[in-house]
Write a structure and sequence with these properties.
It is a single chain. The protein is an alpha+beta fold and about 140 residues long. It has a domain at about 5-100: K homology (KH) domain (GMP Synthetase, Chain A, domain 3, 2-Layer Sandwich). About 55% of the residues lie in helices and about 15% in strands. The chain contains four helices and three strands; from the N terminus they run H-E-E-H-E-H-H. The chain has helices at about 5-20, 60-85, 95-110, 130-140, and strands spanning about 35-40, 45-55, 90-95. Strands 1-2-3 form a three-stranded mixed β-sheet, sandwiched between helices. Strand 1 (about 35-40) and strand 2 (about 45-55) form a beta hairpin. Helix 1 packs across helix 2 (about 60-85).
């Protein structure tokens, strides 16, 4: 499949699922605060892997994944209607470990950063007297 077309379909699947969650068309309360980070579509468009996270602990994360699994059929039907493809890809939800790792790395970088902001020397604006003195010194240097 054309790579550009595949990326467009991935973005549209991501947008559709996110809008279904945000607009609360999916009635399951377990998935209310889910964030969809990216979608990876198989080259034959048979499976769409959806990477998600949410601000929750491990117990709530299990409930969230159960909620997503139970809502998969509804979301897949809505994607099929919206995209109007011959075959709608099966949805597979995966917790986005890479996103969590990137947050942890950014936090470590922030912890190592200097606590005191760097102080830059500010240039003092020149007064009109300084400008006159500077222009006169240049005039003396030119032998014209």
């Amino acid at each position: 499949m054309n790579e550009i077309r595949q990326k467009k379909i991935e973005r549209e699947i991501q947008r559709t699922i996110a809008s279904l969650i945000i607009s609360e068309k999916v009635k399951d309360p377990r998935i209310s605060m889910t964030t969809i980070h990216r979608v990876e579509l198989a080259p034959d468009m048979s499976i769409a892997t959806i990477f998600y996270t949410a601000y929750c602990n491990n117990n709530e994360r299990k409930k969230l994944s159960q909620g997503l699994v139970s809502a998969t059929g509804f979301m897949q039907a809505m994607i099929g209607k919206k995209l109007n493809l011959r075959y709608t890809p099966r949805l597979k939800f995966v917790w986005d470990k890479d996103y969590i790792k990137s947050i942890e790395v950014n936090q470590l970088i922030d912890d190592l950063a200097p606590k005191k902001p760097l102080e830059w020397e500010e240039e003092k604006p020149m007064r009109s007297d300084d400008l006159n003195e500077e222009s006169q010194s240049h005039d003396k240097d030119d032998p014209a």
